[in-house]
Specification:
alpha+beta, single chain, about 90 residues, 5 strands, about 35% strand, five-stranded antiparallel beta sheet, 2 helices
Length: about 90
């Protein structure tokens, strides 16, 4: 494995990571997604939109309304990380 040097890290773009997690329906709540900004330590819930393919599409749609731009995503166990060039609070 190649060692990353300080000069190499200077060329890596800094991004705003936004976590999206799906929560299934319960006796009291319908299915929903939780959107969390790691940078600003903020989160909020949205109802899950069954007309979309997955939870990340609903989060992208909502955050784009708020002026966010995304350049990528990463899949984790039970979460999706959206990678944004927008450094604003999500609320």
């Amino acid at each position: 494995m190649k060692k990353i040097t300080q000069s190499a890290t200077a060329t890596i773009q800094n991004l705003h990571a936004v976590e999206v997690k799906y929560f299934g329906a319960t006796d009291t709540n319908g299915a929903r997604i939780k959107i969390t900004s790691y940078r600003f330590e903020q989160s909020f819930y949205l109802p899950f939109d069954y007309s979309l393919n997955d939870q990340s599409e609903g989060a992208i749609k909502e955050l784009q309304k708020r002026g966010f731009e995304f350049i990528g995503k990463a899949e984790g166990k039970n979460i999706t990380l959206l990678l944004s060039t927008t450094f604003e609070p999500i609320k």
